[in-house]
Amino acid sequence: MLHCYYMNLNCDCSVEQSHAFYEELPEERQERIRRMKNPALAKKKILVGRFLQEVMQEETGIAISKQHFIYSAAGRPSLLHNDLDFNLSDSGDYVVLAVSDQQVGIDIERRKKNHLSIAKRCFCPEEYEDIVATTDPLEQERRFRAYWTMKEAYVKCEGSGLAIPLNSFRIVWEESRTRSVVDKMLHDVSNTFVAYGYTTSLAEEYCVSVCQQCRIDEMCLIEKIL
To answer: Which residues contact 51 (CB under 8 A, 6 or more apart)?
Structure first.
């Protein structure tokens, strides 16, 4: 089971509604928001927190007021008294959330500048060569975002909390360039963690990738409106 949700953070939310959402957030998330100097960013983080609460209420039947989040030693959150795994990511105007019955990671990324220099520095040589194999700048940028989000999703899915270098494992695409498998032999030959991915687009400038331990035949992004 894998459900993926998204929300536009530029939604129409009044100051009063935003404050009400804030009051229902867990204390640790409230504390992080209180430390923010940028009011616009603080409001976005309130909406991200509410988005998570409402989706988990739908997925688990646990009311927002009864939700208690705990954290692993690696800092990975989970919902107390529930076995579903989830992972959040936000970039620019959007937030995405993956909910699964197994360990999962998701990442969203907006267009980046200087993507070729980043790819050459951070990716495996084969991945960089795949990006520059096309001379179309838009296709190069699209391939870069697909690699970047899939690598980030894998690191989050793996869940150890370690800083895994992005060039220590390789993304191998199927012919469609939407489904992929992680070649982890570069990372650790003794690692039995098998991961598969799926990549899609959101709006014009965003790429979303999700990663889990079984093959993902398709991924549908479900819009959530507060």
So the answer is: 5, 7, 95, 97, 224, 226
Each residue of 115-148: pLDDT tens digit? 999 999 999 999 999 999 999 999 999 999 999 9
- CATH number of the CATH domain containing 90: 3.90.470.20
- Helices of type H across the chain: 15-23, 27-34, 39-60, 115-122, 125-132, 137-158
For residues 184 and 169, give the distance between their C-alpha atoms in angstroms, rounded to a whole number. Answer: 5
Give pTM, 2 decimals. Answer: 0.92
Q: What is the DSSP string of 122-155?
A: HS-HHHHHHHHTS--HHHHHHHHHHHHHHHHHHH
* Residue 221 located in a structural domain: no
d(CA 124, CA 104): 23
Instruction: Say if residue 16 is in the same domain as residue 85.
Output: yes
